[in-house]
Amino acid sequence: MKPILNIAAYLFVSLDGLTELRSAMLAECNSRQIKGTILLTGEGINLFLAGKELELHSFLGWLRMDARFSALQTKDSWSEAQPFKKMLVKIKNEIIRMNHPTIRPEEGRANFIAPQKLREWLDRGTDDLGRPVVMIDTRNAFEVEYGTFENAMHFNISKFTEFPQAIEAQKEALADKTLVSFCTGGIRCEKSGLYMREIGMQHSYQLEGGILKYFEEVGSTHYSGTCFVFDERESLEPNLKSIPIEQSIRKKLKVLEPQ
Which residues are catalytic? Predict the structure, then answer.
């Protein structure tokens, strides 16, 4: 097994005392030689961390001793080397910025679909009621370049705050479809799913756990390419292994080519 465990996790939960939390988390991670980034906001926590398995599990055990974080679940992958250069704990206004304060996932999630169930739908091309299924990619344009679900709709956005206007413009065209929004690990869809319901797109779901969970449970079926991740591994293949460096370089050159 590769020596470095990489974890990604988020949890929407009301937090206060962020400055004190920041100091405590930074100290706990540094004492275990863990590196990565933790985002703390009044609406919850988002983290990407890497280190030795025992040290990471020890940190998660410490973190979950706080009842506010007891429900935190991680998505795990492995790498040969530490993909982060430093340990950062940042205080932000939102876990993932959308600029729609009425969208509060802590108060209730949008409908979600499990990866295996989604595969059944995509195998047929319809949901259980016979409605056509359309995959909605909520990620930024450069992430989509690395890979996405086959025939997925995306909007060539440069930041998540552009998603609400982009999806609302398609509301009428998608009225008779069942929509499944997705992103890397699920966090953006916690908000996009609620927003789609808020504007009347009632036949919409979010992919539970995002692309990474789909890779873990299903693999590459109905997916083309890799999944961009926000660390030095750059992207992961459907087997959750880092993309080979030569392939990564070619991908970078392709993304930089004039369109």
Answer: 183
